[in-house]
Amino acid sequence: MGLMACLALLAGTGPSVAQNLVQGRPAARQAAPADTAGFRAPQLDATMATIAFHRLNGSTPDFNRQAETSQAYRSATAFDRDQVRARERSRLEAQFRAFDLSRDYLVRVSTTLNQYDLARRGYAIPFNEASYVTFYDNTTGRQLGVQIRNVDALNFISIPDVANARDFAQRNNLNMQSDIASSIVLEAVIRLAETGSAEQNSGNPLLIRADAVAARVMTNNGRDARVIHAFSVAPPASASSRLVERPLKAADVQGLRLGMARAEAEALAAAAYPDGGKRQADGATAYFEGLAQGAEPLCGVERDRGSPVQRADGSPVFFSVPDRSAACLALQMDDAKLARIVSGQRLDTATRDEVRAALEEKYGPPSLVQEGGTFLTWQGPDPAIPNSPAVQINARMQEAGTGNLRSVLLGIEVRSARAVGPVAAPARPGGPRL
């Protein structure tokens, strides 16, 4: 993406903390012992932090701009630059879709261990009041801060007994005379929670809030780094990621519902999209309104081939919103019956809150809310079909553009609650078609 990770603490840190290592230097990377699986979580870098912000914020990065800052694009000749940009954009979009907000990530901060405090009976670890780990997005020039909300659980090594503290210092070869006992690397396994109040389009740093679920202190001496203290961090309370079936108020999209006969479904779709024509690809039939000139006619072929549609606990994986037209509708059949529906819409006069209110008005309270309220899931039987098997409705809202060009992208997917195989955006006024 052309992003450069700069791991440092924000303003307010002492001079020693300003010597923080850049994320991913070998001194920190070699430190994790083999028997601590949690610390083998993927290490968060600037690229991943930027994706996480947008996924939690319900927004979309400028993929074209990011592609143009990539090394591949900068190295391309005038003859193949357009092809390279398209290839890089495709790669970045796939990376955006594949990012898993539900898993834990690792951050490493190079800092110091202060001298033993006789009054507090322990060693303090300087971590600025804002509790940020910061990254730099070279594409936009913006800083992005990851704020650890429970930082108090990992900024002080308590050793009440002075004799034990002396043993600790001797065992770990700490300096027992100066104000700084040692240079260290603080490793924290974090769980991404939400975005902060920073406006995406202001000049202020973007903010992600996260909770530490594990942390440890390492010596900062390259390949010989070792653990000198492991914190006991209570896992933060978090909302369940499991779907809970509940009665649905509706289970259709624009009158289309699972199990509908092919002829009836295609007739309804053709009547709703009379001017955009229909196209068939990857086993799906797609209908469009306002397909952008030169855009690839896709609606619903959003998951990589072979990737799962849900996790082991039943919660859905990321569903990206079709964005190549003002509106589109894709139908997938199974034995001449409608087996999956995908709808994509670009709305230029509705806010995200208004779209969510419209969704809940039609389908009822969601069974699962993820990614800061931008990814909603409903699961239950279709109320229009007695004794029908459960269906799952996924709706995702993303903000795109700024100012007068701002719009909300809405993607809706209706499928069986059981896993099915994968199916292969000018703006329109008004509210969403539901």
From TrEMBL:
Q: Which domain of life does the UniProt lineage start with? A: Bacteria
What is the residue range of the signal peptide feature? 1-18
- What does the UniProt keyword field contain? Signal
Q: What is this protein called?
A: DUF4852 domain-containing protein
What organism is the protein native to? Answer: Teichococcus wenyumeiae
